[in-house]
Design brief:
Shape: elongated
Strand content: 25-35%
Distance between the termini: 85 Å
Low-confidence stretches: 338-345
Oligomer: single chain
Order of helices and strands: HHEEEEEEEEEEEHEEHEEEEEEEHEE
Structural class: alpha/beta
Largest sheet: 12 strands, parallel
Number of domains: 2
Radius of gyration: 34 Å
Number of helices: 5
């Protein structure tokens, strides 16, 4: 008798093979999908990191390459923009806004993968301030070791704005003509040699070493480290010049800015307020300049020289033949100023100017992050 049920399984192998192929295909597709997702996540993370790095690069690049002329010509409440190529295809767009005379707000947007479906933007910000030296000069002339003022030399503590300068934001008042250390001796030959409120003053700060090397958060060493011009001897004739492209030639060691505001002025150098550091005694014989002059030795003015801003001399200030005009303030140790002796002849005028000092200090100041909560990631 024939069995009611058959054990014939023909076709099962094909079905099992098809099922296995489907399962294996699903596993392969799943693995491919997972790896693709991992790749996309990694790629997007990399692009996002590149965008963040570009934003950070923009902040640091703007701070390190800050154009110090903007410290003078950049008005409060105004903003300006900078664009940088990072080098890996990313870019950084920085907007700088001046909050007040000493503070800026920088917002940097980094862009990576631009003009593609993977474009990512990241934005960071930082509050920066001017590293502004708080110099404690006591008058038009501050002397640690006293000195002698006679002949045709004149020191004026009467505040005066340099001719043609925009000094609306730098108001000042009359001050002492000559401040000197209480333990030193100052000799003024006649009343016309020193005119101020008062003419002379035995200032305790003038006799303190820290006055000449420590300026608030800044110091002699920090100013030297950030000097625009560094010399190891006499510069010769100092005059503002232009480079081949017609811009102020700030790379020239004998270009110390343009203090004049008349038809003879090199106008593109008028906002250039450099820090000049001379590592030894120096003789200034011809020319003009502006900014902050640091002399690690004695300063000898041996000809016709005009200076606007601040002078700090570690040793002695000596004026000999010729004429000189110092507008702003000067500080020296063991100074001897005269115009009638064999060593010191001619004319020298010290004219106090709050505007000249402030513009020199601000125009040469570098940018640093604010002390607290300067940096923020926006998105």
């Amino acid at each position: 008798m024939r069995a009611l049920y058959s054990n014939n399984r023909e076709g099962m192998a094909l079905a099992m093979a098809m099922f296995a192929i489907v399962v294996i295909g699903a596993l392969i597709a799943g693995a491919f999908f997972a790896s693709t997702q991992d790749f996309r996540i990694g790629r997007n993370s990399l692009i996002a990191q590149r965008a963040f790095t570009a934003a950070e690069y923009g902040l640091n690049k703007t701070m390190s390459s800050w154009d110090q002329t903007l410290n003078i010509k950049f008005a409060v409440g105004k903003d300006t923009t900078f664009t940088y190529d990072v080098g890996d295809g990313s870019t950084s767009n920085v907007r700088a806004t001046r909050i007040n005379d000493y503070t800026y707000w920088f917002v940097s947007e980094g862009v990576a993968g631009a003009a593609t479906s993977q474009e990512v933007r990241r934005r960071t910000s930082m509050v920066m301030r001017l590293a502004y030296p708080a110099v404690k000069y006591g008058g038009a002339l501050t002397l640690a070791g006293g000195g002698t003022i006679k002949g045709s030399s004149q020191v004026y503590g009467t505040n005066a704005n340099p001719t043609g300068w925009d000094c609306a934001n730098y108001p000042g008042r009359d001050t002492t003509a000559v401040a000197y250390g209480p333990n030193s001796t100052l000799t003024v030959a006649k009343a016309s040699n020193a005119i101020g409120t008062p003419a002379t003053y035995a200032d305790p700060n003038a006799g303190t070493d820290g006055t000449y090397v420590k300026y608030g958060d800044e110091s002699w060493n920090s100013l030297v480290a950030n000097a625009d011009v560094k010399l190891a001897g006499d510069p010769g004739t100092v005059l503002p010049t232009l480079n081949a492209s017609g811009a102020c030639n700030t790379s020239s060691p004998t270009n110390w800015g343009e203090p004049l505001r008349d038809l003879t002025a090199v106008t593109k150098c008028q906002t250039y307020m450099p820090i000049i550091y001379v590592s030894t005694d120096v003789h200034l014989s011809q020319g003009r300049g502006q900014g902050v002059l640091l002399v690690d030795g004695s300063l000898f003015v041996t000809g016709s020289f005009d200076w606007y801003g601040l002078i700090i001399v570690r040793d002695q200030f000596t004026k000999s033949n010729g004429s000189a005009n110092i507008v702003g303030a000067a500080m020296a140790r063991n100074a001897s100023i005269s115009a009638t002796t064999n060593d010191i002849v001619g004319n020298v005028t010290f004219q106090y100017s709050k505007c000249a000092v402030e513009m020199a200090l601000r125009g040469s100041a570098r940018l640093v992050p604010a002390k607290q909560r300067a940096w923020a990631e926006m998105w």
